[in-house]
Structures are given as structure tokens and as C-alpha cells.
Amino acid sequence: MITFETKCYENDWEFVLHPNRMRQILDRCGYPFQEKTVLINNVNNPEKVKREADKLIRAGLLDRWIHVEEHAAAILDFFQLEKQDFKGGYYYSIAELAGIYFCNTPFLLHFSSDSIPDGSDHNWIPAAMQLMDTRKDILVANATWDYRFEHAASEAFTSLDGFYLGYGFSDQCYLVRTADFRKPIYGEHHVLSERYPAYGGELFEKRVDSYMRNHQLFRITSMQSSYIHRNYPVGGPLRRIMKWGLLLNKSIE
Q1: Kind plus residue range of the DSSP H or E element containing 133
Q2: What is the pLDDT of residues 60-73, one digit of tens each?
Q3: Which CATH number, 3.40.50.20, 3.40.50.300, 3.90.550.10, 3.40.50.2300, labels domain 2-247?
Q4: What residues have CB less than 8 Å from 225, skipping those under 6 apart?
Q5: SS3 category, 90
């Protein structure tokens, strides 16, 4: 049983919560999720964004939304963290922690707001879950980023049943066992985790990467399936083009 989740913030909620976009990402996942959630984080008008999310619930594209900031204190307390621990990375981290905190299923599949499966016929999710059921040292699974299969192979030290096996963690796409992440695992550091962007401070993905390396826990990355990561433009003609693409039910990756 898996929960699907994605998130949105001020610059991208109009895209994430558009029914054509949500339908597209769910169809491309190719899996009958038990629960579908959107995390609303750092928006200027929460009530407006909630109303848009409610439309997706009525359309059957979502089961619930979570306004992250309403629960932030309880989430930080649960994970034994304080806001200042993130050293500038709080807003890059609290939504992911909220998704884990509220997840009701054994597995959780997360896509960042600007990531989407590529739409190939290769469904990596069931195969990844099967491997994770047999190998408890596999902490996370994901599709390959932006068709960079050679890069994914170079970061691995072996392959396993259609996946590359190695270290690493990205908040763009991850499939995890919920119970593994509902533990106080977010206080560790590793020198190799310093490769994450400095502006993110001690952000969620950096903390998970450190935990994995300190405890010899691994990632599997699909050798066939990919996801596409594209930042949304803040303004200008490209943003308008992307909005028109959604209205016409076109891919916006």
C-alpha cells in the first residue's frame, strides 16, 4: 500500500493543482495508490490554495491536502527538531517531514512540485517495493533523473534486478518505507553530504543522505524509468506558455 504525495508553494501551486497536471502525473505513475496527498507550504493565500485543492478532491484526483504550517510545531516535536536546526533550510524541509508524519501507508512515494514521471511504460514502483521488502539495507528507491542513466550508473557500485545500487538521496523523487523515516534520524552529518547546495542549509535531503552513509543504507535507482525535473519560471512569457499548455492538457515538462 502506497501513498502518493506532491507539494506546492507560492510560485508553483497554480501548476501543481491544475487538474490536467495532477491527472498527468498520476497516470504516468501507473499505480493504484491508496491515498493521494498534496502538501501546501509557504503560500501567500492559504485559503485560496486550499479551495483549489478541494476541487481536485471532488474530482477524485486527490484524497486530502495538508497545510503544512498549521502542523509544523507538532511535526518538529515528533522528529525532535527545532526550526533553527535547519540553518536556513526549514522551508526546503518541513513539507517532506509533514508528508512522513501524516502518511498512513507502509510506503510513501514523493514527487517534488517540479518533477514528473517521464511517461514510459516501465513501471519501477512494484519492483522497487519487492526489493525493499527483501533488503532492509535499501532505504530508498527512485527513478533516474532526467534520463541521465550513465550518471546514475557512475554513482552506483553495482546493479541489482534492473536497478543501480549505491548511496545518495534526492527530494525530487523518492519511494520509502514510511516507518524508516518516522524515526529521529535527521540529526546526523557526513562529509560527503556537504555536496548539497549551501543555500539549503541543513535541509531534509542532506540529513537523509548523511544518515544513509553513516549507517551503510542504500538507494536503488531504476535502470529504465526516468522522471523529469524542470523549475517553474517565476514570470514572463514562458510561464504564460506553460499555463496555456495546462489548459490544452499538454505536457509541461
Answers
A1: helix 125-134
A2: 999 999 999 999 99
A3: 3.90.550.10
A4: 117, 118, 120, 122, 123, 124, 143, 144
A5: helix
**CA angle (190, 191, 192) in 5-degree steps:** 95
What are the φ/ψ torsions at residue 172 (nearest 5 degrees)? -75, -35
- What rounded mean pLDDT belongs to the chain? 92
Q: What is the pLDDT of residues 30-79, one digit of tens each?
A: 999 999 999 999 999 999 999 999 999 999 999 999 999 999 999 999 99
Residue whose C-alpha cell reads 487538474 in the numeric block: 19
Question: Distance of alpha carbon 130 from its chain centroid, rounded?
Answer: 20
Q: Which of 167, 174, 161 has its CA nearest to residue 229?
A: 174
User: What distance in Å separates the CA atoms of residue 154 and residue 166, rounded to the nearest whole number?
Assistant: 9
Listed residue (6, 110, 100) closest to 53, CA to CA: 6
Alpha carbons 126 and 135: distance in angstroms, whole number? 14
Give the domain ranges of the chain.
Answer: 2-247
Alpha-carbon distance of 245 to 210, in angstroms, equals 39
